[in-house]
Design a protein that fits this description.
- This protein is of the alpha/beta class and about 425 residues long.
- The chain has two domains: about 5-175, Glutaconate Coenzyme A-transferase, CATH 3.40.1080.10; about 190-420, Glutaconate Coenzyme A-transferase, CATH 3.40.1080.
- About 25% of the residues lie in helices and about 20% in strands.
- The chain contains 14 helices and 26 strands.
- The chain has a nine-stranded mixed beta sheet with strand order 9-15-14-13-12-16-21-25-26, sandwiched between helices.
- It is globular and about 70 Å long.
- The model has no long low-confidence stretch (mean pLDDT about 95).
């Protein structure tokens, strides 16, 4: 490996950490599991460290708080470990969306050490961040100690940001697993639901989407479209359906911040010029996105109320995640010429016992999108086009896409709300 930087071992790197340091650890598929495992093997080196990272529940499976009872964490998403840490007074949970997280990292924090998982350097000493750019570029140059985990498994990808191995104070090479997320296979009902969303997306649109079974089904339903573009915070293996069927505009790269999938998907990305990775300051820049015509943001939710307010991260009064990039993409899509913000969700939860179209979000629920951001809402029962509707027409449209068994009770509840408006 062409470098004048002396290669260390993971154990040597953690010995460079000192109590009181603040350490940035990337999340998603960019997380260095080798660094985490080295700390877990010698947890005394985690004493009085503060870790910062954007770790999404259900994707990130590491527990930095569990390394040592004196560890602190600055977190941006709720998880079971974060909830326990809050009760112990060891976690600062920041209620920020993705652009807000970038500002927090760039303006409010001193980073003593930053861990970057990178591909092996090329002949000029440049390393790729592989399948995750997201937040690391926001803190890299200001980090006092920059550490590179050179992972031979990490695919080399093109992107807005790359680092030079010579700019690192420490580096170690370790063949290590890349965090994976297995794809969920959509069933027939999910595919039928997805077709309602696909009908709102025309040839030539630019897509943003998330991960999960329903999002996979939506992409599968778009294979007959042509000249689509992708500008998204995340991509999953389902994007290959569009590429391999010719739905993506030729010679137009898939632009994204993070790729989440299995090892086979990551191998496909290695050296593939059809993919271009960008940091969050670019992927979630409202001004940049709003200038893209026909931008379609497709995002999932847990509940939508009859005013059009959207809950994406709380259940029964308990915060379960965070708003992530939803507010930025929704706002930008509504500003885009011909753009659409599409919220998609099943009509019911708990095996059909609970309606996800609700009269009004409970006081204990958290609102990710306010009523004035409402645009399109899609359940398996239809599409509600809300942007230009009055509050009464909006309520009627949402009731019409609720599960039939709940419509009468929603109408009665809305009558009561309307009398008190």
């Amino acid at each position: 490996m062409p470098t004048s930087v002396r290669l260390s071992r993971p154990a040597d790197v953690i010995r460079a950490l000192r109590p009181g340091m603040t350490v940035f650890v990337p999340g998603m598929s960019g997380e260095s599991l080798a660094f985490y495992e080295a700390l877990r093997a010698q947890p005394g080196h985690a004493e009085r460290l503060t870790f910062i990272g954007v770790h999404f529940p259900g994707i990130s499976r590491t527990d930095y708080l569990g390394l040592h009872p004196t560890v602190r964490l600055r977190a941006y998403f709720m998880s079971s470990a974060v909830r326990a840490g809050i009760s112990e007074g060891r976690v600062d949970l920041m209620p920020l969306d993705y652009p807000g997280i970038v500002r927090d990292l760039e303006q409010n924090l001193r980073i003593d050490a930053a861990i970057a998982q990178v591909s092996p350097p090329d002949a000029e000493g440049h390393c790729s961040l592989g399948v995750t750019q997201d937040f690391l570029p926001s803190i890299w140059q200001n980090a006092r100690i920059r550490v590179a985990h050179v992972n031979p498994r990490l695919p080399r990808t093109s992107g807005s940001f790359q680092l030079r191995i010579e700019d690192c104070q420490l580096a170690f090479e370790c063949d290590s697993e890349i965090p994976c997320v297995e794809s969920e296979i959509p069933d027939a009902a999910t595919l039928e639901h997805a077709r309602l969303v696909a009908d709102l997306i025309s040839d030539g649109a630019t897509l943003q989407f998330g991960v999960g079974r329903l999002q996979t089904a939506i992409l599968m339903s778009l294979v007959s479209r042509r000249n689509l573009r992708v500008y998204s915070g995340m991509i999953s293996p389902a994007i290959l359906h569009l590429l391999d069927r010719g739905a993506i505009q030729p010679d137009c790269p898939v632009e994204c911040g993070v790729a989440l999938g299995d090892a086979k998907f990551y191998a496909r990305l290695d050296g593939d010029s059809r993919f271009h990775f960008r940091p969050v300051r670019e992927t979630h820049d409202i001004r940049r996105i709003a200038a893209i015509p026909n931008f379609c943001a497709v995002n999932s939710a847990l509940e939508v109320d009859l005013l059009g307010q959207v809950n994406v991260d709380s259940m029964n009064g308990r915060l379960v995640a965070g708003v992530g990039g939803l507010p930025a993409f929704s706002c930008a899509a509504r500003l885009s010429p011909g753009g659409r913000s599409i919220i998609v969700l099943p009509a019911t939860a708990n095996d059909g016992r609970t309606s996800r179209i609700v009269c009004k979000l409970q006081e204990s629920s958290f609102t990710a999108l306010p009523r004035y951001e409402a645009d399109y809402v899609v359940t398996e029962h239809g599409v509600a086009r809300l942007r230009e509707l009055s509050i009464h027409d909006r309520a009627s449209a949402l009731i019409s896409i609720a599960a039939p068994r709940f419509r009468a009770s929603l109408e009665s509840a809305w009558d009561e709300i309307a009398r008190r408006l």
